[in-house]
Automatic annotation (TrEMBL):
<comment type="similarity">
    <text>Belongs to the Dps family.</text>
</comment>
<dbReference type="InterPro" id="IPR009078">
    <property type="entry name" value="Ferritin-like_SF"/>
</dbReference>
<protein>
    <submittedName>
        <fullName>DNA starvation/stationary phase protection protein</fullName>
    </submittedName>
</protein>
<dbReference type="InterPro" id="IPR012347">
    <property type="entry name" value="Ferritin-like"/>
</dbReference>
<feature type="domain" description="Ferritin/DPS">
    <location>
        <begin position="24"/>
        <end position="159"/>
    </location>
</feature>
<dbReference type="InterPro" id="IPR002177">
    <property type="entry name" value="DPS_DNA-bd"/>
</dbReference>
<dbReference type="InterPro" id="IPR023188">
    <property type="entry name" value="DPS_DNA-bd_CS"/>
</dbReference>
<dbReference type="Pfam" id="PF00210">
    <property type="entry name" value="Ferritin"/>
</dbReference>
<dbReference type="InterPro" id="IPR008331">
    <property type="entry name" value="Ferritin_DPS_dom"/>
</dbReference>
Amino acid sequence: MSPSALNIDIGISATDRSAVALELSRVLADSYTLYLMTHNFHWNVTGPMFKTLHELFMTQYTEMWQALDDIAERIRALGYYAPGTYAEFEKLATIKQPSKVPNATEMVELLVKGNEALARVARTAFDRADKADDQPTADLLTQRLDIHEKNAWMLRSLLA
């Protein structure tokens, strides 16, 4: 994550921009990992809840796919390169992919845990952005928190 060659003067110090960009990179890595897991489960879910889960997973991965761009572009606006390779994501992500295709119930459980993990990472990034007085990043992260906490709740409700 190298800083831009141009001098950036948006009212946030270089040190704070760097720290926020790093936290956003972690959010991006976990978002991409969860996106990929959700899309994989959409393709491979089976069982009596197939139609419901297939459609729910599609709704969730489609929303995450669109959010990836917003997160990466905010990193760029802060003057840093966004991570964009599997190797970079693997180093930054807290969410781990399953090694085999789980059954439908396990898929839902893994997605609950993934959304909760992403909410925790986004909350840490929010705290860093808030300390840096970085309102655009804080706003973006507030939106992501709302989505992932809601996703976790909806998925958790399927397990009750």
